[in-house]
């Protein structure tokens, strides 16, 4: 909750990781990665336990997810060509949409980008007036990546790229620190977008961090399986071929150890950025937001990648700390990660652009607990045309259609967080199954008709009214 009105407009530091599972923080190096910097941010502010992505048609889920964060719209509605697959065209953010960077720039902020930008360069230059160590591709080796300098004229061709020696997380942190150290006292507030490529594969952490994790002591996820029980439509995509079939416990432990080490390393590098904020005198007046573009399976349900709709892949970590955000218990509401945009606008008294469709969750941060609106609404997500899901209260339904065959999974998340007990064929749960399926199909018929995803308000409101207690 806000403890006092903001009298000096705060800076904003928005950090987006790549492939960071929501449950991979605050670990002990066996049950999860050690993340002391993120833990301190969460203790200082608010952790959003129900933050989720909306999915998209692109197997590179980070493309629609990052476009959504930038525009405050559902992933496919943020992209110019939402159904294009894995090419430069599919990265384009719609030109008629106002990005978060452009909004802050037009409201007196110096906007600066560091790290991964997996969308088009025109939207990058609409959003930012400067940048350092910019990565324009989807993935690469972490060592000595090929990066770009910010170009005011938008020149980001092959000829302008250059290799930067070092490790990706350290290089991106260097860019953020350099920006903070070169700022002059009394300069306009800044909006700094810092995007890591960690912990995305290749899972090659610096050796110092790799040695902190004993693969044999890594705890397997409770929903570990050697293989997925049925064809979900993407069992052979690149991400799933990073380990042998069937999955072995030893291999999943080894890859998870390296995954945790990557997270601990970028957590440490984030600590250097926060130290630079403190040294500059800007720390107390900077809103810090941490999230990820999506989660990752890492052995859960026999999967490795993010091309699925289980909680481990659609939930993301989200932490807010800084002026206006008081310490409080984690917020459990289902919140789209792309709601960050309108929420920041509300917190900083910046008009929300008309093209933003996500709703601000500022009330959850600012209102006393007894006055918060906590009644859940259906939360829809999809992956391509083959998987779609709805979360409502503690229930979750996933529908698959692969090769003309339809499968349903119904989970009671309050009793089955790992989504291992499929209740779809249990006669005692047929009423909620059909209710959720009807809502999902109504939403999807609208989605499929226009080729994009948008929230069908009539579906949500009617379903909510019928099920209100």
From TrEMBL:
Cofactors: Ca(2+)
Native organism taxonomy: Bacteria, Pseudomonadati, Verrucomicrobiota, Opitutia, Puniceicoccales
Domain Sulfatase N-terminal stretches: 10-350
The entry's keywords: Calcium, Hydrolase, Metal-binding, Signal
UniProt-recorded Gene Ontology molecular function terms: arylsulfatase activity; metal ion binding
Name by which UniProt lists this protein: Sulfatase-like hydrolase/transferase
UniProt keyword Metal-binding, yes or no: yes
InterPro entries: Alkaline_phosphatase_core_sf, Sulfatase, Sulfatase_CS, Sulfatase_N
Family designation: Belongs to the sulfatase family.
Annotated coiled-coil segments of the chain: none
Domain of life: Bacteria
């Amino acid at each position: 909750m806000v403890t006092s009105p903001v009298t000096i407009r705060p800076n904003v530091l928005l950090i987006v990781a790549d492939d960071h599972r929501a449950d991979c923080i605050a670990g002990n190096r066996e049950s999860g990665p050690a993340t002391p910097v993120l833990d301190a941010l969460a203790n200082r502010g608010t952790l959003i336990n129900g933050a989720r992505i909306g999915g998209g048609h692109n197997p590179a889920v980070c493309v629609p997810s990052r476009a959504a964060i930038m525009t405050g719209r559902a992933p496919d509605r943020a992209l110019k060509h939402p159904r294009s697959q894995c090419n430069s065209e599919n990265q384009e953010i719609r030109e008629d949409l106002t990005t978060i960077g452009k909004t802050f720039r037009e409201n007196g902020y110096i906007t600066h980008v560091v790290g991964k930008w997996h969308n088009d360069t025109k939207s990058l230059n609409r959003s930012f007036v400067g940048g350092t160590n910019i990565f324009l591709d989807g993935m690469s080796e972490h060592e000595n990546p090929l990066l770009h300098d910010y170009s005011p004229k938008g020149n980001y061709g092959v000829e302008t790229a250059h290799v930067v020696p070092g490790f990706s997380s350290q290089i991106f942190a260097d860019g953020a620190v350099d920006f903070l150290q070169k700022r002059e006292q009394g300069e306009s507030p800044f909006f700094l977008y810092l995007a890591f490529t960690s912990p995305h594969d290749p899972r090659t952490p610096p050796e110092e961090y790799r040695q902190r994790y004993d693969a044999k002591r890594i705890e397997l996820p409770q929903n570990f399986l050697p293989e997925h029980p049925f064809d979900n439509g993407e069992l052979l995509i690149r991400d799933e071929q990073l380990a042998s079939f069937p999955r072995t416990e030893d291999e999943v432990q080894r890859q998870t150890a390296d995954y945790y080490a990557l997270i601990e390393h970028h957590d440490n590098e984030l600590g250097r950025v926060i130290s630079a904020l403190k040294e500059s005198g800007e720390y107390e007046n900077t809103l810090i937001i941490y999230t990820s573009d999506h989660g990752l399976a890492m052995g859960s349900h026999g999967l490795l990648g993010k091309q699925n709709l289980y909680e481990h892949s659609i939930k993301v970590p989200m932490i807010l700390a800084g002026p206006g955000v008081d310490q409080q218990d984690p917020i459990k509401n289902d919140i789209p990660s792309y709601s960050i945009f309108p929420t920041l606008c509300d917190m900083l008294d910046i008009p929300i652009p008309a093209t933003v469709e996500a709703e601000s969750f500022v009330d959850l941060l600012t209102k006393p607990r007894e006055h918060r609106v906590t009644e859940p609404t259906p939360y829809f997500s999809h992956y391509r045309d083959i998987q779609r899901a709805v979360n409502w209260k503690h229930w979750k339904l996933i529908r698959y259609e692969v090769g003309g065959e339809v499968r349903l999974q119904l989970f009671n998340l309050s009793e089955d967080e790992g989504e291992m007990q499929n209740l779809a064929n249990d006669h005692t749960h047929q009423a909620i199954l059909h209710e959720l399926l009807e809502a999902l199909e109504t939403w999807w018929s609208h989605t499929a008709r226009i080729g994009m995803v948008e929230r069908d308000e009539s579906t949500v409101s009617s379903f909510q009214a019928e099920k209100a207690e």
